[in-house]
Amino acid sequence: MDKNMNYKDLKDEIKKSNYTIKQCAEIVGMSEVGFHQSLQRETLSLNVYEKICELLGVSPSSFFDDASSVTVSGNQNHIGGIGNGNRIVFTSPEVKALKQRIKDLEKIIDSQEKMIELLTNKK
């Protein structure tokens, strides 16, 4: 497990939610046993982790320190476990700045799409 990810907090958040382990497993496309084992072994795939965070309505960064690292290993992109040692670093200011940049770019795209629509309709 990546020492910076707090699986205990994730498990506690699941317990506080209205979802059972079985329901969570079904929603993320896993068996109940497989999901439970991934939680216990602290080897959730990034895809499953993101789905669980979305289901719980929490940010994926919620279970990491403000400036923590995530180990991405092997072809399954597991959080933690044995792998190739690649590191992805998330920091709150960086994430906030990137989210703002995305919003700004989406506004530009919307504006450009409206301009294209206006220009194509004027013919």
Overview of the molecule:
This protein has 123 residues and is an alpha+beta fold. 56% of the residues lie in helices and 12% in strands. It has helices at residues 7-16, 21-28, 32-41, 46-56, 92-121, and strands spanning 67-73, 78-79, 86-91. It has a 3-stranded antiparallel beta sheet. α2 (21-28) packs across α3. The longest helix has 30 residues, at 92-121. The model is unreliable at 67-87 (pLDDT under 50).
Descriptive key words:
123 residues; alpha+beta; 3-stranded antiparallel β-sheet; 5 helices
Topology:
Layout: H1 7-16, H2 21-28, H3 32-41, H4 46-56, E1 67-73, E2 78-79, E3 86-91, H5 92-121
Antiparallel strand pairs: 1-2, 1-3
Helix pairs in contact: 2-3
Spatial order of the strands forming the largest sheet:
2-1-3
* Percent of residues in helices: 55-70%
Share of β-strand residues: 5-15%
Q: Radius of gyration over alpha carbons?
A: 19 Å
Q: Low-confidence stretches at least 5 residues in length (pLDDT < 50)? A: 67-87
* Structural classification: alpha+beta
Q: How many β-strand stretches?
A: 3
**SSE pattern:** HHHHEEEH
Mean pLDDT: 77
Query: In angstroms, what separates the terminal alpha carbons?
Result: 60 Å
General form: elongated
Q: Compute the number of helices.
A: 5
Biggest sheet overview = 3 strands, antiparallel
Oligomer: single chain
